[in-house]
Design brief:
Order of helices and strands of chain A: HHHHHHHH
Helix content of chain A: over 70%
Shape of chain B: rod-shaped
Distance between the termini of chain B: 154 Å
Oligomer: heterodimer
Shape of chain A: globular
Strand content of chain A: under 5%
Largest sheet of chain A: none
Structural class of chain B: mainly alpha
Number of strands of chain B: 2
Order of helices and strands of chain B: HHHHEE
Largest sheet of chain B: 2 strands, antiparallel
Structural class of chain A: mainly alpha
Helix content of chain B: 40-55%
Distance between the termini of chain A: 41 Å
Radius of gyration of chain A: 18 Å
Number of helices of chain A: 8
């Protein structure tokens, strides 16, 4: 269904259109939230909040072409995830020198499931920054604003996240997993 | 591998992930859908809900007022009954009093027998005079004014209205026979408040008591009759 039609139908509180909208975007929003929240039930709670907000405020959404609706939903999801994470426990970021560390990743097959597993295991601070920067393409300034930290903190957390990922990947290869 | 490449690798793999929902995600999906609360129409004015609430409030308010006033009403009702009973009692008392008063009046009106006034202390003036006492009984407080003017020789007696006599006076002649020859009155006497009297024609036996009021005995023959000027 066309995004415009979707927006129109949801604005009129058409239940059928709302269901189509839900079915269309549920998977992406769920998986996006899962990357941040990790915990299944926390992810579910965030998804409920995201859809409630989206469906209630869709009348105010300004359509700006294909993909704008998805981007809008992603923004809502990320914001709600950060809020939920802060609510659970405050995230402490150690500020360190932003030193580029050499990384070496051996060649081996990486699949999505492995990525998800690594992200689940990663500390919340690393994971949050990595998701925001590497996957969702936020700048360090934006990350600093969202997380209320300095740019250097954002950079250092990202480096640590990368190092963690590589170590995990290498470990898996060495153990044959 | 450069950092940027690692980031790009992860990013592309995640974005290009087109695997379907697993079992857990499918269950979660239905759960999430059921918990969404966006299905009520926005901006719609539920008139019937508002009307129901208003009606409920009105009924509730009225019931509350009725309950509050019920006690007050019961007290008022009690006061009313008490007042009614008191009124009935007073009415009965008044009617009893009326009956009693009427009976008294009837008794008084029936009572015509004059009382005999006995006393030896007499005023000299009255000994020689005859005074008739009418058997008129005044049952009303305001007796009609009766003025009688009589000429007895040159004595004028004017009767003026007075209160009804409570006692009837009877003139009794003492045994000593105090009657004397009638003399010519030396002056005109105006007797106020006294009963009209009759000129004595013959000697009579009179007894005048303290009250000074005398009554003609049966032996006396009627002489002058009272003349009422004011009817």
């Amino acid at each position: 269904m066309n995004e415009k039609l979707l927006i129109e139908g949801c604005s009129k509180m058409d239940r059928k259109v709302q269901r189509v909208f839900f079915d269309l975007y549920y998977r992406d929003i769920f998986r996006l939230a899962r990357r941040y929240m990790v915990n299944f039930h926390d992810t579910e709670d965030v998804v409920i909040i995201v859809f409630n907000k989206a469906l209630k405020n869709i009348t105010h959404f300004e359509y700006r072409g294909d993909g704008s609706l998805k981007k809008w939903l992603n923004t809502i999801t990320i914001n709600e995830c950060i809020k939920a994470l802060k609510k659970v426990r405050p995230i402490y970021y150690k500020e360190e020198l932003s030193v580029e560390l050499p990384v070496k990743l051996d060649n081996h097959l990486i699949d999505v499931e492995l990525i998800h597993k690594i992200l689940e295991k990663m500390p919340v601070g690393y994971r949050t920054v990595f998701n925001l920067y590497a996957i969702d393409e936020y700048s360090h300034s934006e990350i600093a604003e969202i997380l209320n930290v300095s740019r250097n903190t954002s950079k250092s957390q990202l480096l640590k996240a990368r190092k963690y990922i590589i170590n995990e990947l290498n470990q898996k290869k060495s153990y044959g997993t | 591998m450069e950092h940027n490449k690692l980031d790009a690798l992860f990013r592309n793999m995640i974005r290009n992930d087109d695997t379907g929902l697993n079992e857990q995600e499918i269950i979660s999906k239905e759960n999430v859908w059921n918990q969404l609360d966006v299905f009520a129409r926005k901006g719609r004015f539920h008139f019937w809900k508002v009307a129901a609430v208003v009606l409920f409030l009105l009924l509730g308010g009225t019931s509350w007022m009725m309950i509050m006033q019920q006690e007050k009403f019961a007290l008022l009702q009690q006061d009313f009954l008490n007042a009614k009973n008191a009124l009935a009692i007073i009415e009965n008392k008044l009617s009893e009093t009326t009956v009693s008063k009427n009976n008294n009046l009837t008794a008084l009106s029936d009572k015509k027998e004059p009382e005999t006034i006995t006393s030896t202390k007499l005023q000299k003036e009255y000994i020689e005079k005859l005074i008739y006492v009418h058997d008129t009984i005044w049952t009303e407080k305001n007796a009609p004014p009766i003025e009688n003017i009589k000429f007895v020789r040159d004595t004028i007696f004017i009767k003026v209205p007075t209160t009804a006599p409570t006692k009837w006076a009877k003139l009794e002649v003492p045994e000593t026979n105090m009657a004397k020859k009638q003399k010519q009155p030396s002056k005109v006497e105006f007797v106020f408040g006294k009963k009209p009297f009759k000129k004595p024609i013959q000697k009579n036996n009179f007894i005048i008591n303290d009250s000074g009021i005398v009554e003609k005995t049966e032996k006396q023959s009627d002489g002058l009759t009272p003349i009422s000027i004011f009817n």
